[in-house]
Model the fold of this input.
Amino acid sequence: MLNRAPLFLLYLNVLAVATCGLIYELIAGTLASYLLGDSVTQFSLVIGVYLSALGVGAWFSQYLHKGLARTFIEVELALALVGGLSAPLLFVSFAFVQWFQLVLFGTVFVIGTLVGLELPLLMRILKEHLDFSDLVSRVLTFDYIGALLASLLFPVLLVPYLGLMRTSLVFGVLNALVGLWGTYLLRPLLTKHGLAGLRGRAFLVVGLLVVGIIKADTLTTWTEEIILGKAVVHAKQTRFQRIVVTNNRQGFQLYLNGHLQFNSVDEYRYHEALVHPAMMAAKTPRRVLVLGGGDGLAVREILKHDGVESVTLVDIDPGMTEIATQLPLVRDLNEDSLMDEKVTVINTDAFVWVGQDHEPFDTVVIDFPDPGSYSVGKLYTTFFYRRLRQIIGPDAVVSIQCTSPLVAGQSYWCILRTMEEAGFKVRPYCTAVPTFGVWGFALASPRGDLVVPKRLGKLEQKLSFLNDSMLANLFELPRDIQPIETEINQLNNQVLVRYYDEEWRGRD
Done:
C-alpha cells in the first residue's frame, strides 16, 4: 500500500509525463516543418498521428493486468529513450534515410502510444487509494497543467536556449529520472529483484542521454553538414529561427531554418537588383526603410547613394543582426553597413511596427524571406501593404523580392496582385542569380508613374553587376514569365502560402 506522500508525488509524475510528451510532439512537428517545409501540413499531421497514438496506447493498456507498477516504470524508461533520442534520430534519418516521413511518423506514433499507456496505468495503480471522481479530476488536472507548461516553455525558453537536439535529450533525462523516482514511490508494489533491474536500466538510460547532451552540438553540426553538403562555420538557434553559415570553395552561404538566403559568390546580383531601381525611381530617397534584410547586404547597397540621410532597418531577429555586425565573414561582405552612423536597427516584428506612427519614408526595400509559412505570409497580405502605405510619402517607391516567377509563377503574381489590391501601382522585373536561377522583384508606388532612369551615372562605378544595359533589361519580361491570374493574399486566407508550397515543394 502507498501512503499519502507518495500519492502526491505521483501526481507530480503525471505533470512531468504530460510535459515531456507534449515537448516530444512539438519537437517532431518543428523538425518536420524545418526539414520538409509546409509547416501547417506537417504540424497538422504530427498532431493527428500523436493524438491517435494516445488512443492506441490507452486502448492497449486494458490488456495489461499484472505488474502494473513495474510496467509503468518500464514505459517511462522506454519513453525517455525514444523521446530523448527523437531529435537526433530524425536529424540523422533525414540525412541518410530515403523514407524519412515513415521514420518521422513512426517515431511520433511510438511516443504517442507510450504516453497513452502511462495515464491509464497510473490511474489503475492509484484507484485503490482514492475515490474514482477524485482520482480522475486530480490526474487530469496535473495532465493539463503539464501540457500548459510545455506549450509555454517550448518557444520561450527551450528552443532559443537549448535548441531542438538538446531539448529532446534533456527531457529524455527528465523522463528517465521520473522512472527512477517511480522505483522509490512504488517500492511497496515492486519485487526486490525487479527493483534492482529497473534502477539499473534507469541509470543506463540517464547516462546514455547525458552523453548525448554533451555531444549535442557536435551531432547537430555533423548532421547539418551532411544535409547542406558544406562545412558549418557558424550556427545559432534564436527564438525565431536557426541560423547556419556554411563555407566551401566558392564562398560562404547563410541558411535560415535550412533554407538558403544568400551565397556570397553572387548575392551582389540579387541585392543590386533589389535596391537600385527603387532608389533611382524615387524622387528624393533621403529617408529609407528596410524591412527584413538583417544581414545588412541591402543596406550596403543603399549607402552607395550619396543623398541618403537615414536608413531604418526593421528585422524581427536580433540574432540575425548580431551576426551581421559580429561575424567577420558577414561583416566583410556587408562592409559594416549596419555600423554606419546613418543606420538605425530595430529588432521587432515588422507586421506590428508598420502599424505605428512614423515620419514618412521616401523609399522602402522589402527583403523578407519567401512566404513558406503563415508567420511570414502575413507580411505579404493586403492588410500589411495598406499599413505600409500609411507610413510612406505620396511619391515613395517600394521594392520587394517576390520569389522566382519562373518556378513559382502563381506566388510571384499573387504578391503583385495583392499590392495592386492594396492601392499600389506595380511594375514587375526580374534577373538571373546563378545560385537561385531567375528571381523576381517588383517596384510599387502610390503614384501612377514608375519610371526608372536609364543611366546609372557615377553609381555604376560602385556596382559589380548592373550597368545601363542590364538596368533596362531588368524590366523586359520573357515570354515564359507573363502575368497570370491569381487570388489576392488576404490575412484570413493566406492563399500565397498554399501557392508557394505547391510550387516549391521538393525543390529546396
